[in-house]
Design goal:
- With 112 residues, the chain is of the alpha/beta class.
- It has one domain: 3-Layer(aba) Sandwich (Rossmann fold).
- 35% of the residues lie in helices and 22% in strands.
- The chain contains five helices and four strands.
- Strands 2-1-3-4 form a four-stranded parallel beta sheet.
- The longest helix has 12 residues.
- The chain is globular.
- Iron/sulfur cluster (SF4) binds next to helix 2.
- The site of iron/sulfur cluster (SF4) has 11 residues, from helix 2.
- It holds the Pfam family CGGC.
- It comes from Senegalia massiliensis.
- This is CGGC domain-containing protein.
Protein backbone atom coordinates (compact mmCIF):
# COMPACT_ATOMS: atom_id res chain seq x y z
CA UNK A 1 0.00 0.00 0.00
CA UNK A 2 1.33 3.42 -0.94
CA UNK A 3 2.58 5.29 2.08
CA UNK A 4 3.91 2.24 3.88
CA UNK A 5 7.71 2.22 3.91
CA UNK A 6 7.67 4.91 1.26
CA UNK A 7 11.17 5.68 0.01
CA UNK A 8 11.67 9.24 -1.17
CA UNK A 9 14.08 9.60 -4.06
CA UNK A 10 15.60 12.54 -5.90
CA UNK A 11 17.11 12.45 -9.37
CA UNK A 12 19.78 14.94 -10.42
CA UNK A 13 20.80 15.81 -13.95
CA UNK A 14 23.21 18.28 -15.56
CA UNK A 15 21.75 21.64 -16.56
CA UNK A 16 23.66 21.39 -19.84
CA UNK A 17 21.39 18.63 -21.12
CA UNK A 18 18.41 20.98 -21.03
CA UNK A 19 17.13 21.20 -24.60
CA UNK A 20 19.01 18.05 -25.57
CA UNK A 21 17.68 15.33 -23.28
CA UNK A 22 13.99 14.45 -22.91
CA UNK A 23 14.76 12.94 -19.45
CA UNK A 24 12.43 10.11 -20.46
CA UNK A 25 15.14 7.52 -19.85
CA UNK A 26 15.34 8.52 -16.18
CA UNK A 27 11.56 8.50 -15.78
CA UNK A 28 11.12 5.18 -17.63
CA UNK A 29 13.72 3.48 -15.45
CA UNK A 30 12.19 4.96 -12.30
CA UNK A 31 8.59 4.15 -13.23
CA UNK A 32 9.44 0.57 -14.23
CA UNK A 33 11.89 0.06 -11.36
CA UNK A 34 14.57 -1.06 -13.78
CA UNK A 35 18.24 -0.30 -14.44
CA UNK A 36 19.57 1.61 -11.41
CA UNK A 37 16.15 1.49 -9.71
CA UNK A 38 15.71 -2.27 -9.76
CA UNK A 39 16.85 -2.60 -6.16
CA UNK A 40 13.55 -0.95 -5.15
CA UNK A 41 11.42 -3.76 -6.65
CA UNK A 42 9.92 -4.59 -3.27
CA UNK A 43 9.61 -1.03 -2.00
CA UNK A 44 7.24 1.84 -2.58
CA UNK A 45 9.21 4.68 -4.12
CA UNK A 46 8.26 8.30 -4.51
CA UNK A 47 10.01 10.67 -6.92
CA UNK A 48 10.30 13.70 -4.67
CA UNK A 49 12.65 15.89 -6.68
CA UNK A 50 14.12 16.17 -10.17
CA UNK A 51 16.88 18.75 -10.04
CA UNK A 52 19.87 20.24 -11.82
CA UNK A 53 23.10 21.02 -9.99
CA UNK A 54 23.49 24.58 -11.38
CA UNK A 55 27.19 24.67 -10.51
CA UNK A 56 28.26 25.81 -13.97
CA UNK A 57 25.73 28.63 -14.35
CA UNK A 58 26.03 29.88 -10.77
CA UNK A 59 29.76 29.17 -10.40
CA UNK A 60 28.89 28.06 -6.91
CA UNK A 61 28.00 24.94 -4.95
CA UNK A 62 25.49 26.86 -2.84
CA UNK A 63 22.50 25.38 -4.63
CA UNK A 64 23.68 21.81 -4.10
CA UNK A 65 24.17 22.57 -0.42
CA UNK A 66 20.71 24.12 -0.25
CA UNK A 67 19.21 21.13 -2.03
CA UNK A 68 20.87 18.72 0.38
CA UNK A 69 19.55 20.64 3.41
CA UNK A 70 16.04 20.74 1.98
CA UNK A 71 16.18 17.03 1.12
CA UNK A 72 17.10 16.15 4.70
CA UNK A 73 14.24 18.31 6.01
CA UNK A 74 11.86 16.51 3.65
CA UNK A 75 13.07 12.99 4.43
CA UNK A 76 14.86 12.42 1.12
CA UNK A 77 17.94 10.34 1.75
CA UNK A 78 18.55 8.76 -1.66
CA UNK A 79 19.80 10.73 -4.65
CA UNK A 80 20.37 9.18 -8.05
CA UNK A 81 22.59 11.15 -10.41
CA UNK A 82 22.27 10.73 -14.16
CA UNK A 83 25.15 9.79 -16.40
CA UNK A 84 25.26 13.47 -17.41
CA UNK A 85 26.49 14.25 -13.89
CA UNK A 86 28.48 11.03 -13.47
CA UNK A 87 30.46 12.09 -16.55
CA UNK A 88 30.37 15.79 -15.65
CA UNK A 89 32.67 17.60 -18.08
CA UNK A 90 33.42 20.24 -15.46
CA UNK A 91 34.65 17.40 -13.21
CA UNK A 92 32.35 18.39 -10.36
CA UNK A 93 30.87 14.97 -9.74
CA UNK A 94 32.96 14.19 -6.66
CA UNK A 95 32.17 17.57 -5.12
CA UNK A 96 28.46 17.07 -5.74
CA UNK A 97 28.51 13.55 -4.31
CA UNK A 98 30.49 14.66 -1.27
CA UNK A 99 28.03 17.42 -0.41
CA UNK A 100 25.14 14.97 -0.33
CA UNK A 101 27.16 12.36 1.56
CA UNK A 102 28.21 14.91 4.18
CA UNK A 103 24.51 15.44 5.00
CA UNK A 104 23.83 11.72 5.33
CA UNK A 105 22.28 11.32 1.87
CA UNK A 106 23.23 8.23 -0.12
CA UNK A 107 24.19 8.89 -3.74
CA UNK A 108 23.68 6.26 -6.42
CA UNK A 109 25.64 6.96 -9.57
CA UNK A 110 23.21 6.16 -12.34
CA UNK A 111 19.59 6.18 -13.39
CA UNK A 112 19.38 4.17 -16.62
S1 LIG B 1 28.94 21.14 -12.81
FE1 LIG B 1 28.81 19.34 -14.11
S2 LIG B 1 26.79 18.47 -13.72
FE2 LIG B 1 26.74 20.55 -12.94
S3 LIG B 1 25.96 21.81 -14.64
FE3 LIG B 1 28.20 21.82 -14.80
S4 LIG B 1 28.72 20.16 -16.20
FE4 LIG B 1 26.59 19.83 -15.48
Amino acid sequence: MLGVNLMNIAIGICEKVNGICTTMGCFKAFNNKEKYFKSYKNEEINLSSFFTCQICSSESKDWVNELADRFVKNNIFKVHIGVCIVKCKAEKKEEIVNIFKSKGIKVIEGTH
